[in-house]
Amino acid sequence: MRLILAFLLCFLPSALWAGSVTVFAAASLKTVLEQVAQDWQAHTGHSVTLSFAGSSALARQIAAGAPADIYISANPGWMDHLAANGLIRNDSRIDLLGNRLVLIGHDIAPLPGLSAATDLRGLLSGGPLAMALVQAVPAGIYGKSALASLGLWAGIEGQVAQTDNVRAALALVALGEAPLGITYLTDALADPRVQIVASFPAHSHPPIIYPAALTADSTAPEAQALLDYLQGPAAQARFRQAGFTLPDAP
Hints:
There is one protein chain. By secondary structure, the protein is an alpha/beta fold. The chain is 39% helix and 20% strand. The chain contains eleven helices and ten strands. The protein has helices at 2-11, 30-44, 55-63, 76-84, 120-124, 138-149, 153-156, 166-174, 185-190, 223-230, 233-242, and strands at residues 20-26, 47-53, 70-72, 94-98, 101-105, 129-132, 160-163, 180-184, 195-199, 209-214. The strands form two sheets. The protein has a five-stranded mixed β-sheet. A five-stranded mixed β-sheet has the order 7-6-8-5-9, sandwiched between helices. α2 packs antiparallel against α11 (233-242) and α3 (55-63) runs parallel beside α4.
């Protein structure tokens, strides 16, 4: 019997011993994280289940007991919320990525920049400005902060069409249902149906940071290995190609 067991351990396909990791990630990571997950699966044989939504919705799901191994938020606030409730492993937390905020359009010519003099209401021509939820979803929070900083929020507040996540705001513009929207640079680059009208000045909003961490309830032994892989050269090359920025080396 021992000889048979030893034979099976040596020669059975490694896929039979593969583990699985569940990742809850901000919607803006969808395109690139699907590519990175495929790379990791091919490299290790372990499977990855990806769940994308607004960072706020994912944080609430984890707080309600949803089975996630890794959480990647599009802002530190929702990660802080889980940390304060003991729902992540603080020693695993990292700042994984950064991003930029842009104004996107559907058949609207690029602007030289954005300032208090920008006629955003005129550019909308009575149509909506697509944004993620401005009180909950990071892209919406950053967007409102940027508009308020530039003195533009009060003039267009009544025309904002809020969506559950940044990819939904992107879709409204891509489909022509909104003439303008606010997304991350990486979202704009992922959809050829939209154009970047202008970039928001970096000083107009807090730095866009994507923290990642293991959840407190994770039991997947491969989760830390995947988190490490996300910080490695292969994954970082994917992130750079998609338009993300990387944190400064310590």
